[in-house]
Specification:
Thrombin, subunit H; 4-stranded antiparallel beta sheet; 3 helices; about 5% helix; globular
């Protein structure tokens, strides 16, 4: 989404720039760019959080054992969506050459700004070397994406084109381009791997696409400006965030019918959504509302909220369900939330305008 804020010689130049030496951690975190000697022996057991910083164009690495930033390195222009491969060896990052327009900028002014399409793509980051190894095509203005269950395919939302690109990772080619809702943003593969769901912000809908054929199989109307969605681990339900309405829509994933509309706290602008590993709770970041809210799946009701920082967008949970990490854009930090007590344990300084966060095992 533009308010929140892949190729020739130009792409090669960008790639070379991305492979500069990584820089030390920022702010109050004084850890070196590489993990301390005493933690290297246990690096294989470490869980890392990767944070995209849209304005400073870099990826910050956080060691979740100490909740400290341990590295930061360039990846490309306007990094936003981020995912980690199952083996933790590769981090994928959505890059965009389209201008970033703040919420206060009128649409007509934003349209005057020039886009550099040579900078669009999906950066493939070698997690061990902490450097970009190549940039995949991802269609126009890629914002967010998801990985297929077998890790061979990317499903990418193309915000300014109203499409979704299906990218074969091995060949580095776009397999097909699918027309979806206008200003697509949230992308999630259903737990059974057969469909991928894409939110359309200005069409106020969710497009359901067959992951094998690339054909649209359904379009579901939801609330105004849907930003993201999350499935329960069993795939029975989908929870779709609607920013303008301040609501979360609960959909039956099989029938794709609305089951309930949940009102978020006053002032909330629901953005990202994530399910707990046990499927009992859904966590929602509330953007300019400054909080993360908790939905009880058994009753589909709001059961709590915690203030985390300025305009939280991307969120991610540890596999044990004990901690949540939220990327807080304007405050340039990441909050670590204790999910048992629903309290903030720590705020970690990162780059400028952190946007997305994803967790993965250390390579």
């Amino acid at each position: 989404m533009r308010n929140d804020l892949l190729a020739g010689a130009v792409a090669l130049a960008a790639l070379a720039a991305c492979q500069r030496a990584e820089t030390p951690a920022r702010g109050g975190d004084t850890a070196a760019a590489s993990p301390p000697a005493e933690t290297t022996a246990t690096a294989s057991t470490a869980l890392l959080a990767y944070v995209t910083n849209e304005d400073s164009q870099e990826l910050t690495v956080i060691d979740t054992r100490t909740d400290s930033a341990i590295a930061s390195f360039p990846v490309g222009t306007r990094p936003r969506g981020v995912r980690v491969s199952q083996d933790g060896r590769t981090v994928f990052v959505a890059l965009s050459g389209s201008p970033r327009c703040p919420p206060t900028m009128p649409d007509e002014e934003c349209e005057k700004l020039k886009a550099d399409k040579s900078k669009d793509g999906i950066a493939v980051v070698d997690a061990a070397k902490r450097a970009v190894s190549r940039v995949l095509p991802g269609g126009s203005d890629p914002e967010t994406f998801d990985l297929s269950r077998d890790g061979t395919t990317l499903f990418v939302s193309n915000e300014d084109a109203g499409t979704a690109s299906i990218v074969d990772i091995a060949s580095g080619k776009i397999r097909s381009t699918v027309k979806v809702g206008k200003e697509p943003e949230g992308v999630r593969v259903h737990p059974d791997g057969r469909t991928v769901w894409v939110t359309g912000e200005t069409d106020h809908n969710v497009t359901v696409v067959d992951t094998r054929t690339g054909k649209v199989v359904d379009r579901v109307e939801v609330g105004k400006r849907p930003r993201s969605l999350a499935f329960t681990p069993d795939g029975a339900r989908a929870y779709v965030t609607s920013e303008v309405d301040g609501t979360v829509w609960v959909l039956d994933a099989a029938s794709r019918k609305s089951l309930k509309v949940i009102r978020m706290p006053e002032g909330a602008k629901p953005m990202d959504a994530e399910a707990s590993p046990d499927g009992r709770r859904i966590f929602v970041s509330n953007g300019r509302g400054g909080t993360v809210s908790v939905i009880d799946v058994a009753t589909d009701s709001l059961v709590g909220s915690v203030a985390v920082g300025q305009r939280p967008w991307g969120i991610a949970l540890t596999p044990d369900g004990r901690k949540l990490y939220s990327a807080n854009g304007p405050s340039n930090d990441v909050s670590v939330v204790d999910l048992e007590r629903l309290t903030v344990l720590k705020k970690i300084p990162v780059g400028r305008i952190p946007w997305g966060v994803a967790l993965g095992q250390a390579p």
